[in-house]
Design goal:
By secondary structure, the protein is an alpha+beta fold. The chain has a domain of 61 residues. Helix content is 32%, strand content 20%. The strands form two sheets. A four-stranded antiparallel β-sheet has the order 4-5-6-7, with no helix packed on it. The protein has a three-stranded antiparallel β-sheet with strand order 1-2-3, with no helix packed on it. It is elongated, with a radius of gyration of 48 Å.
Length: 185
């Protein structure tokens, strides 16, 4: 019984193959829609012989391309040609830009990234100490020492301190910032 089913399936598949092949190979035949007699009376030349038009071919070969400023491979229009006034204006603007670039810009020292909130001295007479606050971090630095490896503390006064930025050598001043007292009850 099993063998009979296999033979039936094989027969159906062969039948489908024959039908598909018939339509596939039958579609290659050209379909004639014009009358054969009218085609014989009005012949058309399918290939144009270039030897018949030698003067036109020579004219095309001897033509020299002259650009009108337009790039022929794009649809964009050509840029307008600058006038003498435009050129003079551009030169003047360039000279102004060069003059401004030649002037040095004033370089300013970086502001301290911490808050200077106080100062003090040790009883044995050493240099003054400055107190800095950065959130929860507190820095205590003597005169002449480095703060955060970027700033050298030069002089600690009663209301301000002088410092020097190590990378640029520029000097600046930080003002003593008063801290607000605790809230009163």
């Amino acid at each position: 019984m099993k063998q009979k089913k296999q033979l039936a399936v094989l027969f159906v598949l062969l039948l489908i193959l024959v039908v598909v092949g018939y339509f596939y190979f039958d579609s290659d035949k050209p379909v004639v829609t014009t009358d054969v007699a009218s085609a014989a009376q009005n012949p058309q030349i399918l290939v144009d012989n270039p030897q018949l038009h030698t003067s036109a071919v020579e004219k095309a070969r001897n033509t020299e391309y002259k650009s009108g400023g337009r790039i022929i491979f794009t649809r964009d229009l050509p840029h307008p040609q600058p006038t003498k006034a435009d050129i003079d204006k551009a030169k003047h603007q360039r000279d102004l830009d060069l003059a401004q670039a030649a002037q040095p810009t004033p370089v300013q020292v970086s502001k301290l990234p911490v808050k200077f909130f106080g100062y003090g001295t040790v009883p044995n007479g050493t240099a003054r100490l400055a107190f800095f606050n950065d959130g929860d971090d507190v820095y205590i630095v003597k005169e002449g020492e480095l703060l955060m490896n970027r700033f050298r503390i030069l002089k600690i006064g009663n209301t301000n301190l002088d410092y020097e930025e190590i990378s640029s050598g520029l000097r600046g001043t930080a003002i003593l910032e008063e801290q607000a007292g605790p809230p009163s009850a």
